[in-house]
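Researcher: Please predict.
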Amino acid sequence: YPEFSKFGTIEVASGTFNLNYPLTLTQLNIAFGASFSTSNELVISSIENNGDFSITSDLLITKSLTNSGIFQAEKVYLEPVENEITITGQSGDSSEIANKTKISELYCINQAGKNLVINNAISVGKIALSGSSDNRLSIIGNGIIYLETECGDDENDIAQYLNLDESSLPKIENQYITVSDGQFSSENNDIF
């Protein structure tokens, strides 16, 4: 991932923090009532959002996103530096709750042998998930993904080389999804 100005942790305790340049962070914490916004690229290991987070450029996360506020991002790339990366939205299983953790495009591609953990509810416009043919990406967690568009009709809308365990797989709400080279079972509009 790109090398930008590097910082350890930024804490936004109150008010509004507008970032005007690309940045690499270890941790970003946004308190309840505070807000963070940028139109520049960010590389962040972990985000803990209790306030209002908005980014209109690329966001690369390498460890975790925990949202209990409002989180809105255009493009999120998940590239775990360790074995696992976790996205935690707000608890509940409605689309209204999921829209509080809203990602227009989510990419976790070529992540062979890694685990993507989805907890609670998130909303995603387009999604691309993949491992490799000999070492699949495992999708696990207790969450639900509200997928807003069809998946599989575009080269950027893929789900391939996945390891999907019915007992620990997040639910994906969408009536269209294609998984190639993955093991899954389907019931109605949910992928388990």
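Model: Confidence is low (pLDDT under 50) at residues 183-192.
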